[in-house]
Amino acid sequence: MRARASELGFVRTGVARAQVLTEDFARYEAFIEEEMHGSMGYLAERREARRTVDTEAILPGARSVVVCAIDYRAAPATANGANEKGPQGAVIARYARGQDYHNFVRKKLRRLAEFVRQETGCEARPMLDTAPMLERAWARLAGVGFVGKNGCVIAPGVGSFVLLGSVVTTAELVADEPMESRCGACTLCLDACPTRAFVRPFVLDARRCVSFLTIEHRESIPVSLREGVGDRLFGCDDCQDVCPYNQSKSGHKPASSQFSLGERWASRTVESLLAMDERAFEALTLGSPLGRPGRDGLVRNALTVLANTGTVAHLPAIERLVASETSEVVLDAARWAIERIRERAARGA
Ligand code: SF4
Ligand code: SF4
Fold first, then answer.
1. Helix (H) or strand (E) holding 308
2. Whose CA is nearest to atom 4 of ligand 2?
3. How far is it between the farthest Cα atoms of the chain?
4. Tens place of pLDDT per residue across the chain (349 aa)
5. Burial of 247 by CB count in 10 Å (0-12 exposed, 13-18 middle, 19+ buried)?
6. Among candidates 93, 87, 84, 91, which has minimal Cα distance to 273?
7. Residue 276: inside a domain, yes or no?
8. Residue of the nearest CA to atom 5 in ligand 2?
């Protein structure tokens, strides 16, 4: 099964015994109780179902969870030295620079589930962001990686830029050893966060995280956090970029060029996003994770980036937008951007 998973492009595969989660579930419950999930209401739904996988929601009679990781650190995308991180003037989180991963990773998991069924005669169900599962807990229990102080699963030798999927099965497979934290005294990720989103090691207040604010949040970004967004158009990788476990290239094996920056982003500037109406947004983000925040959310993000980095040369485009815009979220971000850019210009900065 491991050989088959490797053939399919997974860089790590591990097996956990299906069990009732205790510590990991308690951490999840505390996160929800303290409302750190913000407006991601779906995280608080079907709480009890997340305690184990032997449930109606996942697979009755489940005995093992096979967890697989795919490396999404893309090889440099462009030969001519053009943008690799996002449109000119902005950064997109690594996992989102290319195609939406769901389709092609799901296909790989389906093939692996089929293999498990054939080999064992037991039921097997592929899972990828579809059912209420505490993926990081299962990854840790399956020995795929440990959970770092930044909350990410880190596979030693590969790092944390991995996507996790699993195959839940009624087959009783030989389980791997769980992997406990190997962070030691390091605090690099906690110190690197631009919005101070870590309440303490291992505990992230998603409401302050740039990834939440630029991807999931539908309202205005709180003023006190806007500066921390910096030049990030969609998501944030800072607490992973600084992690020593991500500096090793030895286990680095990108799944495919599907994670390289798409031409649609490389060929434009962040300012050009301001002119997008709903139709242009739909066309631009088709098959891309950047469709997630919606047109208003993405334009809000572009304005926040310009507020933090733009110059007076950007003012005409922002003012044109203000003249025709109807979304309050966009208007709020646009007015703030104008104010910030003018302030900077007045200071000669
Ligand atoms: S993703 Fe960025 S904003 Fe969120 S916790 Fe990590 S460093 Fe902070
Ligand atoms: S940066 Fe340091 S503390 Fe943070 S996850 Fe990596 S090893 Fe752990």
1. helix 294-309
2. 189
3. 72
4. 999 999 999 999 999 999 999 999 999 999 999 899 888 888 888 888 899 998 888 999 999 999 999 999 865 544 444 568 999 999 999 999 999 999 899 999 999 999 999 999 999 999 998 788 999 999 999 999 999 999 999 999 999 999 999 999 999 999 999 999 999 999 999 999 999 999 999 999 999 999 999 999 999 999 999 999 999 999 999 999 999 999 876 656 665 678 889 999 999 999 999 999 999 999 999 999 999 999 999 999 999 999 999 999 999 999 999 999 999 999 999 999 999 999 999 998 7
5. exposed
6. 87
7. no
8. 148
- The answer to whether the CB of 93 is under 6 A from ligand 1 is no
Q: Which two tokens stand for residue 170?
A: 């009624």
Probe residue for ligand 2, chosen from 149, 153, 237 as the CB with the greatest number of ligand atoms within 8 Å:
149
Do the domain assignments include residue 12?
Answer: yes
Could you tell me the residue range of the domain that residue 161 belongs to?
1-177+185-262
- On whether residue 62 sits in a domain, the answer given is yes
Q: Which of 200, 203, 245, 248 to mutate to test the pocket of ligand 2 (most atoms within 8 A of CB)?
A: 245
Please check whether residue 157 lies inside any domain of the structure.
Answer: yes
Protein residue closest via CA to atom 8 of ligand 2? 183
Q: Report the domain count for the chain.
A: 1
Catalytic (active-site) positions: 129
Q: Is 168 helix (H, G, I), strand (E, B) or coil?
A: strand
Q: CA-based Rg of the chain, rounded to a whole angstrom? A: 21
